[in-house]
Amino acid sequence: AAAQAAEQKRQEVITKARSGLESELKAGGELSKESALASGFDGITADNVAQFIEEAKKIPASSTDVLRELAAVATRIKVVGILASTNETKRVTSRELSAIGVSACSSKYGGLITLQLYKLPLDQRDTFEEINKAAEAHLQVLVARRTRIDALLAKYSMK
Questions:
Q1: Alpha helices (H) in the chain, listed in sequence order
Q2: CA–CA separation, 74 vs 17, rounded Å?
Q3: Do 94 and 110 form a contact (C-beta atoms < 8 A)?
Q4: Are 40 and 69 in contact (CB under 8 A)?
Q5: pTM here?
Q6: Tens-level pLDDT at each residue, the chain (159 residues)
Q7: For 120, how many CA atoms within 13 A lie in the half-sphere containing its CB?
């Protein structure tokens, strides 16, 4: 019973913090670190809360589903944080990268692109823009390779 009460209290704090973030965003006010940390979004810590607030400010006030967009920002920060660390990179999947907006990972080459991202130096995979750029570059290499193979197969299958 005590565990249920504690969980209910935690959920109330999370709900209150999320509604506070939503109202602050819609009012165009300053987002508080306390609300962001208490909001319960997965991956938001004291180390990256400032980055979360900066990204959250970019969400338009006219947005209809602010909480979903805040959750997407939190997920992006979490996945980029995992990729940027040395010991946790194997936990990121192509599906997660695709979900945060790395469009190259939604292709049929998503697994290969994800593996290539693991091989990049840490300083080349510590921001979303760098990850997206590297994924697009590797997708172009894979597509060019596939095109060459298809041309060779077509050429030699005619003989």
A1: 2-27, 33-38, 49-57, 66-84, 94-99, 110-119, 128-157
A2: 14
A3: yes
A4: no
A5: 0.79
A6: 788 888 888 888 888 888 888 888 877 778 888 888 888 888 888 888 889 888 888 888 777 788 888 888 899 999 988 888 876 656 888 899 998 988 888 889 998 998 898 888 888 888 899 999 999 999 999 999 999 999 999 988 876
A7: 24
